[in-house]
Amino acid sequence: MAVFGPGDPCLIFDRKERRYLIELIPGQQFHNHQGVLPHDEIIGREEGSTVKTSLGRSMTVLRPRLADFALKMPRGAAVVYPKDTGAILVWADVKPGNTVVEAGTGSGALTMALTRAVGEQGKVISFEVRDDHAQLAEKRISGFFGGIPENVDLRVGPVEEGLRELRPDRIVLDMPEPWHSVPIAATNLAPGGIFCCYLPTVPQVQTVREALDEAGVFLDVMTFEMMMREWTVGGRSVRPNHRMIGHTGFITVARRREPAGN
């Protein structure tokens, strides 16, 4: 089994299954109310190991799943929730070998999921207009993968400029005004390719749907949202949690066809 090494992300669970995400750095320490845990006590251990703090409290160390990393990592921009990420990957049909254009990169959470989905033979080209977000995303993506994967191309600037020179299989947008990209997607998205955008409000959805209709080359257009409710299961007590992750955003997907007469 692989062991933890310097620079690896590590998820620490306490006895109540509270979780803490850290980056393992030799010589540094994790501090909380249950004591001090040197990073060196974790480095070299296998995933799933139990370690003890200076107060003798047991902690379990695991590698974070992508969902854990996305929700727990320090970030500057809001992330796409895992429940929505899964839906985007399925309904945009992102698969190994695809070339995907993404915008905006934000904190990089969706970029990481897209990178895994396209595999080593695919490519993710991600655009971010803000320098600070782009720098943070590069740091977070590198921290999760142990470096920027070879199939990831991070760019700073408007996605519309990049789309004019690309012909991707998928376009996935998490940005305030994706409708500006629709006319370019109508000509540069591969035939049969999928346009997908993630938006928080109904007026934004209405505007992008109007743009897709006006383009005249998109069909199978659909807008939906995902809800997630966790359940508490303990003995005879089986009930839904009082809190749930309700509305976070609307997902719109559309497929490009060749213009009529072609």
Give the secondary structure arrangement, pairings included.
Layout: E1 9-13, E2 19-23, E3 29-32, E4 35-38, E5 50-52, E6 58-62, H1 66-72, H2 82-91, E7 99-103, H3 109-118, E8 123-128, H4 131-145, E9 152-156, H5 159-163, E10 170-173, H6 182-188, E11 194-199, H7 202-215, E12 218-224, E13 231-234, E14 237-240, E15 250-256
Parallel strand pairs: 7-8, 7-10, 8-9, 10-11
Antiparallel strand pairs: 1-2, 1-6, 3-4, 5-6, 11-15, 12-15, 13-14
Q: How would you describe what is shown here?
A:
There is one protein chain. By secondary structure, this protein is an alpha/beta fold. The protein folds into two domains: 9-64, Vcp-like ATPase, Chain A, domain 2, CATH 3.10.330; 68-256, Vaccinia Virus protein VP39 (Rossmann fold, 3-Layer(aba) Sandwich). It is 26% helix and 28% strand. The protein is built from seven helices and 15 strands. A seven-stranded mixed sheet has the order 9-8-7-10-11-15-12, sandwiched between helices. It has a four-stranded antiparallel sheet with strand order 2-1-6-5, with helices on one face. The chain has a two-stranded antiparallel ribbon with strand order 3-4.
